[in-house]
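Box 3.1 A note on notation
Throughout this textbook, protein chains are presented in two layers. The first layer is the amino acid sequence; the second is a C-alpha cell string describing backbone geometry. Keep the layers aligned when reading.
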Amino acid sequence: MKIAVNTRFLLKEYLEGYGYFIHETFRNIVHRHPEHEFIFIFDREFDPKFIFAENIRPVVVGPPARHPLLWKLWYDIKIPALLKKYKADVFVSCDGFCSLNTRVPQCMVLHDLSFIHFPKFNKRSHVFFYKKYTPAFLEKARRIATVSDFSKKDILAHYNKIPDSKIDIVYSGVKEVFAPVDGYKKMHIKEKYTSGKEFFIYVGAIHPRKNLENLLKAFSVFKKRQQSGMKLLLAGRPAWKYEPFLEKLKTYKYRNDVVMTGYLEDLELNSLLGSAYAMLYPSLFEGFGVPVLEAMKCDVPVITSANSSMQEIAGDAALYFDPTDFNDIADKMMLLYKDEVLRKKMIQKGKERNGQFSWEKTADLVWQCILKTVG
C-alpha cells in the first residue's frame, strides 16, 4: 500500500502542535509497517532527520503553503497531481485540511475548533478560510480523527451532518524523552535559569490563546501574598500576536522574576520541566494539551484550566481553575505551595494518569483509522 502523508509541519526549526503529532505518530507507524511505502509530502526543504526509515519517499511540492491562497493551490491542485503521479492508495492529512479535488480516499485529523470559539486569536483571513472550507473538508474526508472526546463532541455539535460513526478518537501522547530529573540536575538547572530559586513553569507558544496575561496577574497575586522568591518560567517560542504580551512584560512589577527561555530542544525542555515546582497551563482552549502530560511524566504536579479537554486528559491528577479568573489561578498556586502532602499526592496521581497515553497507542489508533479509510 502507498500511503501519502501531509508532512508540511515537519519543520527544521522547531516541532510543536501539528508537527509534533505527525512526527511521533508516523515515526511509530512507519517502523511498524515496513511492508508499506510512505510518501512524505513537504512544501519546502526538509531536514533529513525526518526521513527515519527506508520505506519513506520524501517529496517536495512547493510553493510553501502558509496562507489561504496557497493552501487552495497546494491542496486542490498540487496534491491531487502528486497523488495521481505516485498512485497513492490513501492521503493522510493531520492539520485539519484535505484536498477537495481528488478521488483518493482521505483520512483527516482535525484537532479542535478553536477558530469557532476564539476567532480573535487567529488571523481574519485564516478564520474566514477555516469557516468556509471546514464543512467541505469534513464531508470530503472518508474518515475523520480527532484527539479527544471533547473535540469529537464539539465537531458533531457544530457540523451535525457528519455522522458520529465517521469520527475516531486517537488522542495524543508524550515523547519518551520526558522523564523525572534527579536532584543534582535539578540543582544545576535552577542555578542556570533562576539563581537557585524554585519556579513555576509554563510550556507552550507565547500566543493570546494561551492566556499568559492572566497568568502574570495570578503570579502577582501569589508573590504579594506569599512573599516568596518563587520564579515563573515561560518556555516556548513567540508566536502570532506575541508583541503586546512582551510590551506588558517590560512594565510588569515582577518582571525580574519572570524568565523567558524561547524554544527549547527536547532534552533541555525535559531538564527544565522536570526541575519545576509545578506546571501552570492556563490555556483558554485546547483539543488535547500535551504539556500537561509531559509534566506528569516528569513527576511535576499540574495546575490547569477547567475547560475544553484538560479535565478529560488529566482526570483527578491536576488542580483546576477558571482561566478567566486570575484570582482563582493564584488561589490554586497558593493551595499547592502551602500543602506539600497535596503536592506529593498529585505527583503520584500524575504517574498513574500519564500511563494511559503514549505515542504507540496514538499510532495504533491512527493506523486503524487509515485502514478504515482505505476500506
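The chain has two domains: 2-173+359-374, 183-354. The CA atoms of residues 170 and 362 lie 5 Å apart.
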